[in-house]
Amino acid sequence: MGRYGPFPAAAGDGGGCLPPPIVAAEGALAVVDGAIATAAFVQLARIHRHNHIQGWTRQKIFHFMIGLSNIVFLVYFVSTIIATCQRWIFWVHGCGFVLMASPQILLLASFLLLLSFWVDLCHQTNDEDEEDIRSHREALLDRAKTKPGIPPVNIRQRCCPGIQLGSRQKFVILVFVLLFIVMFAFAILIWVGKGENPIDSSLLKRVYLDVFSVVVLVLGGALACYGALLFSKMSKVRSETVSTEKRKVASLAAVSLICFLSSAILALVTNVPVLLYWYSTDADIIYNAVILFVYYFLGSSVPSGFVLWIMRDLPHRQVVERPTESRVVTLFRERPSTTQDPQWRTAVTSSNKALKSSPI
User: What's the CA gap between 166 and 268, in Å, rounded?
Assistant: First the structure.
C-alpha cells in the first residue's frame, strides 16, 4: 500500500525530511519563482522611475501582483522543505495550506484583471453610452454634495492615483476577496480536522484543489475566447502599433489556455499538489516530484514570466505640455458631404479606440 500522513516516514539518512527528488523539484521551483519576483519588482521600479506622474497604472499593478505571488511561492517552497524536516505540526494542519493557496489566488486575480480589461475592450462600443451617463450622474452628485468653496476630496484618487476602476474591475476585486474568505474557511476546517472528529483534512484539501482547478480551467477558456474575439476586432484596424498589440494578445491567450488547461487537468487527475506525501516506492517519489514541478511550472511560472516579457516595454514618458500660439487654419472643400456611411463612422471610431487603449 502507499503511504499518506502528515510527514514522510523516517527512513535511512533522510530522517523525516522530504525525499531528494521532491526537494530538488521544490528547490528548482523556488529558484525560478525568486527570479521571476526579482525581475517583476526591478521592472516595476524602472517603470515607476521612468513615469511616476501617472501613479498606479495597469502595467504597474500587474508587475506588483505577479511579483508578490511569486515571492509567496518562494516562501512556500522553502518553508515546505524546512517544515517537513523540523516536523512542524501546524504547517500541515492549516498554515501550509494557506501559504500554498494564497499565491495561487493572487495569480488568478491578476489574470482575472487582464480578462476584465479584454472584456471592456470587446464591449467598449456597447458600454460607452452607459458609461457616459453614469459619469455624468456621478459628476452631478459630486457637485450637489460639494459645498461651495470646498474642493471635493477623493480618497481613492489621493491614496492610489492613476487607478481607474470600472464595474468589471470591481467585480474582480469582489471575487478576489471571496476567494480569500473561502480559502481561510477551508484552512480553519483543516485545522479543526486534526482532532478527533469526522472532518477529513485530506478530503477537504482535495475538494479545494478540484474546485480551484475548475475555476482555473474556466479562466483559461475565457482568456482564449476573448483573446480570439479581441484579435478579430483588432485585425480590422490597419496600423503597425495595433499589429504589435494583436500579436501580444494572440500569444498571451494561447499561453494562458495551454498552461491553465494543462495544470488544471493535472491537478484534477493526480491531486499531487495536496497529496505530496503519498508514495511507497522510489518510482512514486520520482513521479510525485515530476508532477509537482510540472504543475507549478506550467500553472504559475510560465504565465507569470510570459506576462512580464509581454509588458517589458517602458511606457512613454509624460511631458508637461507648454502653451503654444494659436493659429487659425481654414480648410476648403470642393463639395460639402451631406451624408456619411454609418459603418464607416463606426469603423473609424473603433479604430481610434483600439489605438487609444492597449489591451495589454
Answer: 34
